[in-house]
From TrEMBL:
Catalyzes the transfer of a phosphate group to glutamate to form L-glutamate 5-phosphate. Belongs to the glutamate 5-kinase family. This is Glutamate 5-kinase. InterPro entries: AceGlu_kinase-like_sf (IPR036393), Asp/Glu/Uridylate_kinase (IPR001048), G5K_ProB (IPR041739), Glu/AcGlu_kinase (IPR001057), Glu_5kinase (IPR011529), Glu_5kinase/COase_Synthase (IPR005715), Glutamate_5-kinase_CS (IPR019797), PUA-like_sf (IPR015947).
Length: 368
């Protein structure tokens, strides 16, 4: 493993590192991470920090409740976010900037591009972007839900070379190391498959919401964009010394040799499905390679409400998921065409509008 080629990295820090005792922010475990970030910047590598912890940081300011309500959690996030940013600022001798995002921001293509531009502008002017999900205001349907996946989306938006996910274990083990003494650390993963997902258990931290499963999901998003990804132990200060020496202190996920095209990666891993196009069971799954054009004749049902340009799922009637694609039609127009008994009308409408989806805007789903 070599870190000398890194020009831009994303570091993800979880709630357990920010507020390990749920009594507000603590710099105890953050100092080593901050020193690592400062050293990377001094060596000419740009850094983006994705930091969880606003709810955990603000929890102590409210009545001790075993299961706080959603509104109480939002209040905790609002109070804790300020404390968390103040804690990070104390550890750096360079300026930082706060970006609070929702999945609604990331899944909208125009806002996604705006986020990219903001990140690049901050980096080009020497500021450290510190990014978190906007837990204080976001609705459930607009949430990413965990900062592991958020960090992968940010890494893709930032065109990062590497994503470093700081965990409370050294990396991915063959079994849960907290339950099995014979669990073995996997030092390198060249392909994320069903076997790798089977090794990922639930959350092991009482503070954070992301377990190993979300970290594997994040790694898959990142490596498909050509981003080297590591899961490391953020509680061990020596982790960051090893990283600076080009050593692998945890689990390294090697990136795809041929990364997905940027707009297809966004469609596959960031955009949200707004509806479904149900096609005949014998419809070809390999839309891209064979340049198959999806027409209204191929569609047997339309599900959901979507507009032109929204992402839709193309699947067979038997439930097999084929692709995510950008729709050239709205669901309203498709229902209108389907209601017309005159096939000449439907054919004329399609000749004017074109195919339902374009082969340049299709992300094939190999395994779901």
């Amino acid at each position: 493993m070599s870190t000398s080629h890194w020009k831009r990295i994303v570091v993800k820090v979880g709630s357990a590192l920010i507020a390990p005792h749920q009594q507000g922010c603590s710099s105890h475990y953050l100092l080593g991470i901050a020193q690592f970030i400062a050293t990377c910047r001094a060596q000419g590598c740009q850094v983006v920090l994705v930091s969880s912890g606003s709810v955990a940081a603000g929890r102590h300011r409210f009545p001790d409740t075993a299961e706080p309500s959603i509104s109480l959690k939002k209040a905790m996030a609002a109070a804790g976010q300020a404390d968390m940013m103040a804690t990070w600022d104390k550890l750096f001798d360079f300026p930082s900037a706060q970006l609070l995002l929702t999945h609604g921001d990331l899944r909208d293509r125009d806002r996604y591009i705006s986020i990219k531009n903001t990140i690049f502008t901050l980096l080009d002017n020497g500021l450290l972007p510190i990014i978190n999900e906007n837990d204080a205001v976001t609705a459930a349907k607009l949430r990413v839900g965990d900062n592991d996946n958020l960090s992968a989306m940010v890494a893709a938006a930032a065109d990062a070379d590497a994503l470093i996910i700081c965990s409370d274990v050294k990396g991915l083990y063959t079994k849960n190391p907290n339950l099995h003494e014979d669990a073995t650390l996997i030092k390198q993963v060249s392909e994320i498959n069903a076997e790798i997902y089977a090794m990922a258990g639930g959350a092991t931290s009482s503070v954070g919401t992301g377990g190993m499963l979300t970290k594997i999901e994040a790694a898959e998003k990142a490596i498909s964009h050509g981003i080297e990804t590591m899961i490391v132990d953020g509680f061990d200060a020596d982790t960051f010394n090893q990283l600076l020496k080009g050593q692998n202190p945890g689990t390294l996920f090697t990136p795809y040799d041929v990364p997905m095209q940027e707009h297809l990666h966004w469609m596959m891993h960031t955009s949200q499905i707004q509806g479904e196009l149900i096609v005949e069971n014998d419809f070809s799954a390999d839309l891209e390679e064979h340049d198959t054009q999806l027409t209204t004749d191929d569609v047997v049902a339309v599900r959901g409400n979507f507009s032109v340009g929204d992402t839709v799922l193309v699947r067979k009637g038997d439930g097999t998921k084929l692709a995510k694609a950008k729709s050239n039609y709205s669901s309203c127009l498709l229902h209108f065409i389907a209601d017309q008994e005159d096939r000449e009308f439907a054919n004329n409408a399609q000749q004017k509008t074109g195919p339902l989806i374009s082969d340049k805007n299709i992300a094939i789903l190999e395994q779901l």
